[in-house]
Model the fold of this input.
Amino acid sequence: TPLGVWVYGILIGFMTVIIRLFGGLPEGVMYAILFGNAAAPLIGAFTQPRVYGTGRNKATKP
Done:
């Protein structure tokens, strides 16, 4: 989803800055991308839109 792409990009950018500033590793981009790829299914699950007609709770029936 477009929101998921934004969250993914912001996460990778934030992790790159943190690793490069506070860590002694020059490969901050590589580790940030690996972390972002590991978190991609979770980001996708949270940013996926609901099916029309369903409630927020999965136990709720229309």
